[in-house]
Amino acid sequence: MKVLVTGGGGFLGKRIVSMLQREGHKVASISRGKYPDLISMNVECHQADLNDEVALKKALEGVDAVIHTAAKVGIFGRYEDFYKTNVQGTQTLIKLMKEQGVSYLVFTSSPSVIFGQEDLCGADETVAYPKKYINFYSATKALAEKLVLEEGKKKDSLKTVSLRPHLILGSGDQNLFPRLLKAHLHGKLKKIGRGENLVDVIHVDNAAKAHLLALEKLVQGRPSSGESYFLGQESPVNLWKFLNDIFVDLGVGPIEKSIPFSVAYQVGRIFEKVYAFQGRFEEDPPMTRFVALQLAKGHYFSQKKAQKDLDYYPFINLTQLKTELIAH
């Protein structure tokens, strides 16, 4: 098969590209940036925004399937920026896939699409979308996921699946863990709440493998098109113990300070209003309400559906994940 990976130069996208090549697929990538390492891997590279229909049509030529990882990710910013990339970009992709006769779409979603303001402990795919979001990334990813799932339910349309990997970690990560480590090294990372919250994490290679499994099953005619799946490791972790174990092994010491959740939440609200008033949309505030919730609440999910339908089981375990984070 020829597979187009949107966001193929990203942390997850690059792992998916490598795995597809190892399995003998021809791979193309479309990203906003230029990635010489993909070119050196003999990937057919297209540099463009997903809303550039001319460039996207060219990228879709001869393609059998798309794995759509590209997104605007962030804890703060303008709604229209998130909407343009996450929703309009997905709409454009679906439209052109149908026009070009591309049959299969695997969409990278996020568990945040169902995260409101309460703990989600062992939640499964039957949990409804919340009525209100306090984070533009989550809100727009939810709209995009709905587009993908609704399309997959239509007769004689695309075959689609939406995957929800949670807190993707591993070597090559330039975002999540490095930011936490940097904040800790500068004395700015504080335990929020009681420090008892359990969360799912996932190694990037496990997440990438799940995308290939989902594509394989779609081509085989199972699972049913238009389904979503949570993805994680073999079990959730206590977030703060997980981080402290790694920090101690790195020789930087554990997180000592803490702050009540209610205080962190209100501080986040203030920062959001100040940054918006000042037009500082390109900067991340030190705290937001969404970050306070993510760091204080429990959010882990049942993987029974992914195991049953996709044969998904993490082949890299939590111990290996910790070791990799310490080594890199």
What can you see in these coordinates?
The protein is α/β, with parallel strands linked by helices. It has a domain of 210 residues: NAD(P)-binding Rossmann-like Domain (Rossmann fold, 3-Layer(aba) Sandwich). Helix content is 44%, strand content 17%. The chain is built from twelve helices and 15 strands. The strands form five sheets. Strands 3-2-1-4-5-7-12 form a seven-stranded parallel β-sheet, sandwiched between helices. It has a two-stranded parallel sheet with strand order 6-15. β2, α2 and β3 form a beta-alpha-beta unit. The radius of gyration is 19 Å and the shape is globular. The mean pLDDT is 96.
Count of β-strands: 15
Coarse structural class: alpha/beta
Low-confidence stretches: none
Strand content: 15-25%
Described by the principal axes of the CA atoms, the overall outline is globular
Give the rounded overall mean pLDDT. 96
Please summarize what this structure is:
The chain contains 12 helices and 15 strands.
Write the layout of secondary structure elements.
Layout: E1 2-6, H1 11-22, E2 26-31, H2 36-40, E3 44-47, H3 53-59, E4 65-68, H4 79-100, E5 104-108, E6 120-123, H5 136-153, E7 159-165, E8 168-169, H6 176-185, E9 191-192, E10 198-199, E11 202-203, H7 204-220, E12 227-231, E13 237-238, H8 239-250, E14 258-259, H9 261-277, H10 289-296, E15 299-301, H11 304-310, H12 318-327
Parallel strand pairs: 1-2, 1-4, 2-3, 4-5, 5-7, 6-15, 7-12, 8-11, 9-14
Antiparallel strand pairs: 10-13
Helix pairs in contact: 1-7, 4-5, 8-12, 9-10
